UniProtKB/TrEMBL annotation:
Keyword Oxidoreductase assigned: yes
Residues annotated as domain D-isomer specific 2-hydroxyacid dehydrogenase NAD-binding: 114-292
Protein name per Swiss-Prot or TrEMBL: Glyoxylate reductase/hydroxypyruvate reductase
Superkingdom of the source species: Eukaryota
Keyword Nucleus (UniProt): no
Keywords (A to Z) from UniProt: Oxidoreductase
CDD domains: GDH (cd05301)
Annotated organism of origin: Dreissena polymorpha
Gene3D superfamilies per UniProt: NAD(P)-binding Rossmann-like Domain
Stretches assigned to the D-isomer specific 2-hydroxyacid dehydrogenase catalytic domain: 8-315
GO cellular component annotations of the record: cytosol
InterPro entries in the record: D-isomer_2-hydroxyacid_DH, D-isomer_2_OHA_DH_cat_dom, D-isomer_DH_CS1, D-isomer_DH_NAD-bd, NAD(P)-bd_dom_sf
Gene Ontology molecular function terms on file: glyoxylate reductase (NADPH) activity; hydroxypyruvate reductase (NADH) activity; NAD binding
SUPFAM superfamilies in the cross-refs: Formate/glycerate dehydrogenase catalytic domain-like, NAD(P)-binding Rossmann-fold domains
Length: 325
């Protein structure tokens, strides 16, 4: 390829739509052909002289990477909604655009949130295990009894696009009330009949709490020992937002001491959560391996959106995923 073509480095194999888009525009693309996270040394070896870095959540993009890339780097585009792995301030200082892929996983994460809630509330995985382990005996009136969603009060922490999507999907289940807490009231809450409440009220009144917020200094470990003690004993906590919103040690204690009914987590701190962590084997906790956006629909769109962000940055145009302008 000619040296005047823009050079893009892709840190691991990604769905084809993004690669096909970049190829169709004649860019010079180099891909780390692996399904695993790129080793730090390999990343540093391959970024010098590139114009764009197509990365993922597992890649730490800090000042050392930017320094290794040099002044040619114009944009860092991550194939993810989160961008905590990128030193945005360092990019700003160097005039490097930063882009994420917002909105594309809204439906898939909202769907999984509801699925995880149903799995947890109805103790389905315990039922599956009972069948596989030959423990399905004669009928017992209180065996594997769970909790219905009908006539329950649902609380959502973070009524953004995903939180709104969760509320919209839960409403047809016949829930009694939907309340939410966020940094401010949002006008579209009326569309799903959601009422703004303070955090203490959310804890006290809700039968189900779905965590759909970002991780900030204000939300880090906001679900702690005091929060769990304030909740109903039959309450269920579902977290598809960020793992650090929950103090895992305090959650373990709350479940063990029957302070809440159950928990379902698609995000943990750290990720992956070690297999010997006590929450992993806790009978009242279901943990998924951060698979909220694991649909081909979402991943294909994320790949293409990241690619289009790079193309927009090269053209000096506004990108869908601009983290800052």
């Amino acid at each position: 390829m000619s040296s005047d073509k823009k050079k893009i480095y892709v840190t691991r194999r990604v769905p084809q739509p993004g690669i096909e888009f970049l190829t169709s525009h004649g860019y010079e693309i180099k891909i780390n052909e692996s399904d695993d996270a790129i080793p730090r040394e390999l990343l540093l070896q391959n970024v010098p002289g590139i114009n764009a870095l197509f990365c993922l959540l597992t890649d730490t993009i800090d000042d050392a990477v930017l320094e290794a890339a040099g002044p040619s780097l114009e944009v860092v585009a991550t194939m993810s909604v989160g961008f905590e792995h990128i030193d945005v301030d360092a990019c700003k200082k160097r005039g490097i655009r930063v882009c994420n892929t917002p909105n594309v996983s809204t439906d898939s994460v909202a769907e999984l949130t509801v699925a995880l809630l149903l799995l947890t509330a109805r103790r389905m995985l315990e039922g599956v295990a009972a069948v596989k382990e030959g423990k399905w005996g004669k009928w017992k009136p209180m065996w594997l009894c769970g909790i219905e969603l009908t006539q329950r009060t649902v609380g959502i922490l973070g009524l953004g696009r995903i939180g709104y999507g969760v509320a919209r999907r839960l409403k047809p289940f016949g829930v009694k009330n939907i309340v939410y807490h966020d940094v401010c009231k949002v006008s579209y809450a009326d569309d799903v009949g959601a009422t703004f409440v303070d955090f203490d009220t959310l804890l006290r009144d809700c039968d189900i709490i779905c965590i759909c917020c970002n991780l900030t200094p204000q939300t880090r470990h906001i679900f702690n020992k005091e929060a769990f003690k304030a909740m109903k004993k039959e309450a269920i906590v579902i977290n598809t937002g960020r793992g650090g919103v929950i103090n895992h040690d305090d959650l373990y204690d709350a479940l063990t001491n029957d302070e809440i009914f159950a928990a379902g987590l698609d995000v943990t701190e750290p990720e992956p959560l070690p297999a010997d962590h006590p929450l992993v084997s806790h009978p009242k906790c279901i943990i998924l391996p951060h698979m909220g956006s694991n649909t081909w629909d979402s991943r294909n769109q994320m790949s293409e959106t990241a690619a289009k962000n790079i193309h927009s940055a090269f053209l000096k145009e506004v990108a869908v995923g601009d983290v800052y302008r």
